[in-house]
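Every protein is a chain of amino acids, and every chain bends into a shape of its own. Below is the pair of lines this work produces for a single protein:
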Amino acid sequence: MRFSIAARLKSFTFAFEGFAFMLRTQHNAWVHLVATIVVIASGFALQISADAWRWLIVALALVWVAEAMNTAFEHLCDVVSPQFQDSVKHSKDIAAAAVLVCVIASTLLGAITFAPYVLALI
């Protein structure tokens, strides 16, 4: 298969469709979106350094990747096994736990990153 710019651009379309699907179907994605906006606005308001931005970007990406993988996994489980099964429930719970771990780690990263800037205001 030959390289094609049109094909590469189309792959971005698929990614944006996936992101839109996640926002339409997952309430937690809206929570992550609000948190992302608050973090970015706070970063600009506090005029954080490039080093601090790096950590915040890692933290934000960590949560969004985990939420996207969880959404994909849950959707696939619902298609493959629409009827209730304990093993599917446990798998979905574990995927949700992975998001929780990422959210906790990102919250700690954010707190450590913002702390010096907030303390300087006090």
